[in-house]
Specification:
This protein is α+β, with helices and mostly antiparallel strands and about 120 residues long. It is built from three helices and six strands. The relative contact order is 0.19.
């Protein structure tokens, strides 16, 4: 995955913590930029998308069904995790510094779950 990577567009519409996550995750060696637009940035492990960051301040994480079954209840009860649209994905709003820290931890978990 070497080579020169074009800069990501900075959207004035994206939530601040999502912008921060996009910048942080770009430097992670296990992640590759799969897709970018004004509305969404997607990072992947190999060919598998693992995190989608959206302009409206949400992050969708490909945690896999076993991981969601293990930790989903706790995250949902805490109010961080929203109902997944797909059974392998979990969605969270990234509004605060704590949400940002949790997002990075969950991305790490998503990477491990998808390798």
């Amino acid at each position: 995955m070497g080579g020169v990577v074009a800069p990501l567009p900075v959207s004035r519409n994206r939530a601040a913590y999502v912008e921060q996550a996009i910048a942080e995750l770009r430097a992670w060696p296990d992640l590759a930029l799969l897709h970018t637009s004004d509305d969404e940035v997607v990072y992947a492990v190999g060919d598998t998308p693992v995190v989608r960051l959206t302009s409206d301040g949400f992050a969708a994480l490909h945690l896999t069904r076993p991981v969601i079954e293990r930790i989903g209840g706790s995250l949902h009860e805490s109010g961080v995790l929203t109902s997944p649209a797909d059974e392998n994905w979990a969605t969270m709003r990234v509004n605060t510094a704590s949400d940002f820290d949790l997002l990075l931890a969950l991305v790490s978990l998503a990477i491990k779950a998808n390798v």
